[in-house]
Amino acid sequence: MSPVPDRAIVGAHLRTLDPACPFATAVAMRDGAVVAVGDDAEIRALCDAKTDIVDGVGLHIVPGLTDSHIHPLMSAIRTQGADLTQAATLDEVREVMAAERERTGANGWVRGWGASFEPFLATGIRGDLFNDAVGGQPTYIGFFDGHTAVANASALGIAGVDGPRQFEEASTIVCDERGVPTGELNEWAAMAVVQRVMPQPTEEERYRLFVDAFRKYNQVGLTGLHAMDGAPAEFDILRRMEENGDLTCRVILPLTQTPDTTEAQMRDHLRHRDEHGRRWRGGVAKFFMDGVIESGTAWLIEPDSHNQGGLPFWPDPEAYRRAVALFAGAGFQCVTHAVGDMAVRYALDSYKAAGAAPGIHHRIEHIEVVNDADLPRFAAEGVVASMQPLHMMWFEASGADTWSERLGDRRHGAFRARSLRDSGAIVALGSDWMVASYDPRVGMAWARLRRAGGRPDRAPIVPAQALTPLQALEGYTTESARTVGEANVAGRIAPGFRADLTAFAADPVDCDGDTLATLPVLLTVTDGEIVHRAEA
Prior knowledge:
Blueprint lengths: L6 E4 L2 E3 L7 E2 L1 E5 L2 E6 L1 H5 L7 E4 L4 E4 L1 E6 L3 H5 L3 E2 L6 H15 L5 E6 L15 H4 L4 E5 L4 E4 L1 H6 L13 E4 L5 E6 L1 H8 L7 H17 L2 E6 L4 H12 L6 E3 L2 E2 L6 H7 L10 E2 L2 E5 L28 H13 L3 E6 L2 H14 L8 E4 L10 H5 L2 E4 L14 H6 L9 H6 L4 E3 L10 H10 L19 H7 L2 H6 L17 E4 L8 H4 L4 E6 L2 E5 L3
Parallel strand pairs: 1-6, 2-7, 8-15, 9-10, 10-11, 15-16, 16-18, 17-19, 19-20, 20-21, 21-22, 22-23
Antiparallel strand pairs: 1-4, 2-3, 4-5, 7-24, 11-12, 12-14, 13-14, 24-25, 25-26
């Protein structure tokens, strides 16, 4: 006999993704786990006077949604300042930055985030383009890709940047023919030179930003996050959030390894493999094998139209391979950012050489282009394809965008989610927020439509690669669970599984793709706790 539930939902419509009971009207929970699924009468019979019975009329419940690639902590810090995601021209960028300068005041840094490349096609990415708009105040703008930034001369001066520098990784302070920095910063090490001298929030301000961010994730239906931030100090943040009752999503957090991470530091990271709380854990190592196509830093089998794309992020790729072997041998799951087809191939080869501990699937992130010969290897070699089709929001079906211009005919093989899924590979879906919207409704709409929801006037991008509505939901539920070896406890609504639930105003599988992105989220439950309930 099932234990008396502490919470139950009745009168709802449940799509459980459990083959044994695909649909139901009620669910009972206790101590953060599902104890029963069935009809209203069955579930009510299990309840007593202490059970919190939620009226589920109008709720269309699916397993709790998980974003399989998100930067939940870093993005909370780096999305401070002006939102440039809608600025389509250089004049619009300047206008937004001028308004941000007014808000900041006469003495502060002027910051922006989410800039796209198209406004800079005619001028190049230069810091002096904003001096008039910001009155010469130190200015730093991050691009949507997270791998590119631009700073003006005032900001560069504070950072002591007066020429090119050498880095352990493939990062560049871009300079003109005279050796003078233009302000463009490519990849993490170059951006960090300026970021380190920018004013930082206090510890308490940071904490409040994290808590607020997690509540926003709950409001769009997220109950789980495969975080891509990663350092031992961030375990302490998650530990504090959980102790304070503020960790409202489950989090898996990797430890990031870069070319300048020493072997001693890597070996020290091994001792953190089993760190965990009730709603968070480690056990993952994160690597970058390349950058992004738009800035020419993706590693490609054939160079792009600018004759770029021939270099990996790790100047010595064999050092990456040794690092993967170290962590894989210690029982870690390995995660590799690989946008270009050569980066994907090298990651696959490295995983194959390293092997994996029982029950662990290594994973590759993004996979914006993959060679035909490498596509079937994901399923055959047990490697997860972690993808973000909503990154195509910056593409044009005509090819009139920076990504497509650089790749030429290869653009017709963009984001091959359907081919990977049909091959038998695990295809997990995510946002890469702060790169793109963390809203899983937007992500599922892009996976289904290959264009923005609500924009039937826009031509889809490689429509043959669209996922079915059910596959899109699975990308945020069952496939996410399989990705991290949790298919026996997560991704379905079934007895013994975690009580993580997302409730919409309509079934996200049955509803039209163009209305999905705005489908109201009515209830979010993490670990049996109601972490979001829409106002009546």
